[in-house]
Amino acid sequence: MVQLLETAARFTGENKLELLAKIEGSEDYQSHIRKLASHSQERKIIKSRFKFGEVYLRDESGRLVPAPIEYHGYQRKDEDTIDQALRELSSDLSQKLGYLPNITSITIPRGLDYIAKHHMYDTLCDGDSIPQVSQPWQVLGFLDATRSAYDLDNTEGPEPKVPRNIYHDHDFLVLYVDYNAYSLDFWVATIAEFTAGLVGDEPPFSFRHQDLAASYGNDDDSKTKQSRVETAIQQLLADLFSREEAEDLNVIILSGEASPKSMDSLGQTIRKMVPRTWQGIIRDQLDPNFVTAIGAAHRARKFIQRPELWKVQNSHTHDEL
């Protein structure tokens, strides 16, 4: 099984990108993050006009039943586990850099629901392991961090199949293909400068294949596993390209925690499915393990270059993942 990775990146004073660290958290950290991902998949939160939200699970027959108390929130020891993991990462960075880093932007794991996401927000913003992070908009969700890594706000760079502008086009769609420790994920989102929202919650616009979670060892090299991944991607892309929404697709981003061999195989499968005239929309040039860390570095740099954005606190938080 692939271990969840903590990664860090920065832009230097010369505006040079540096990949700083890639470490595995403790067993407690690994277990807790996997629990957050699992709970997010299992529970159903039903909000009403008069209640914050009621939490349910589906039983074997598919009926919604009230969820046990452990699905309603998380404990102080869970916050301490996250804090400790961040301290370890900060210590590793300090040893590499020779000084205590000033961390001003951070990402949270992918695929978290409302309860898990706000558990992460509260832990990161209220804890003292990263004192410079105190506002929710300094915490990036997966969609926003990943698009920031490829600087989609910048109209320069590889040309999309049809030049678009995220500030003026309502439907600037991005396809995220993420091969991670939980699952093989496939998300289509519409983005703007500080927002990213899923187009839909059903295939082909949103899909999580947990049986195809990234793994190492013999399974990673097996032709059977590669064939299953290839088939899943081919089916999803064929379905997506048959929809009218595909005309608004301007970027495909690849990321993940799988081995380089598995990520290369995934990229080849996607390139075979994407029309030749669309090849320029594929973004896979960055180290897939560091994509979200690079995205956080881009966000931190943006707030340094445009300090007035710090004053607009509550308008930079919408990311459905």
Describe this structure in words.
- With 321 residues, this protein is an alpha/beta fold.
- It folds into 2 domains: 5-142 and 291-311, no CATH class; 158-284, ATPase, nucleotide binding domain (Nucleotidyltransferase, domain 5), CATH 3.30.420.40.
- 35% of the residues lie in helices and 19% in strands.
- It contains 8 helices and 13 strands.
- Strands 8, 9, 10, 11, 12 and 13 form a 6-stranded mixed sheet that branches. Strands 3-4-5 form a 3-stranded antiparallel sheet. The protein has a two-stranded antiparallel ribbon with strand order 1-2.
- Helix 4 (142-149) packs across helix 8.
- It starts with a strand and ends in a 16-residue tail after the last helix.
SSE diagram, text form:
Layout: E1 5-11, E2 17-24, H1 27-42, E3 44-46, E4 54-58, E5 64-66, H2 76-97, E6 106-107, H3 114-126, E7 139-140, H4 142-149, E8 173-179, E9 184-191, E10 196-198, E11 206-209, H5 218-221, H6 223-241, E12 249-256, H7 260-273, E13 282-283, H8 291-305
Parallel strand pairs: 6-7, 8-12, 12-13
Antiparallel strand pairs: 1-2, 3-4, 4-5, 8-9, 9-10, 9-11
Helix pairs in contact: 2-3, 4-8, 6-7
What's the gist of this structure?
This protein is an alpha/beta fold. Helices cover 35% and strands 19% of the residues.
Please give a handful of descriptors for the protein shown.
321 residues, alpha/beta, Nucleotidyltransferase, domain 5, 2 domains, six-stranded mixed sheet, three-stranded antiparallel sheet, 13 strands
